[in-house]
Amino acid sequence: MKVIFVAIAAAHGALLRAGASESSREDPVTKTYTKLGCFKNYTIGDLVVKDNHGLETPSKVEFEDWHMSIDKCFRFCKEHKDMNYFGITDTFCWCGYHYDGTKVEQTRTAKFKCDQVCRGDKKQTCGGVAASDIFYMYECMSTDTEMGPRRTQEAYDALRQKQHEDKLAYQKAQKFDSYVVHDKITCGQDEDAGASVDGKDTLVGSVEECKVTCWDSWQCAGFEYDREAQRCSFKGDTAAGERAANDKVGCFTKMIGRVEPKAASIEAAKK
User: 0.70 exceeded by the pTM?
Assistant: First the structure.
């Protein structure tokens, strides 16, 4: 079973303060953790999705141990740079930069429960059927009981904001790279092939602005971009009608599905 770490879960300051009771403190500045809750896993067979939003660190690392416990998983994950979360499902331990899942309340009638007793510590639970116990790791930056949690909360909030910005940039970059481009040639010139996006047939702006605007509209199949006028004309069908050679334009057609964006596109999306 593979968990895809791609989203960001919310946690409260109270949970951060409570995490000290479930953590290991070996020195004044050390990594510790707090439990975020029980989450339903998102799985796709054995497919591992690499979705780290352009960062050089891996999206996820994992290992299996038949004597798994929360502390054992934490000790493994805290050694991996830039891994902010870890999760446990029975004998499997995952460390992730992001994770994707839905928090589930632990009621008697709940379909997904984290009620699997840890094989390495009978006093703990290690996820359940299609569910993981998820934890957030952070640095304890002060032994002061007031300053430590506050600084940790600030660091966590900053991390969540950065992850949110990274995710938006990644999604925007996908739109940049999800087009087939035919340069120096028009799109099909059938008079019925045009499309209207937000009530407009054209848009004055950059190629990137046209890509995003067209992608977000189901009526738009692509566009013809005039580099000299910096204007795109939206198309419901880019192949309808005859095409003509033209050094000033390019025809952009949406791909089916989205692609893994290039690093340069992600950087451009952040601007």
Answer: no
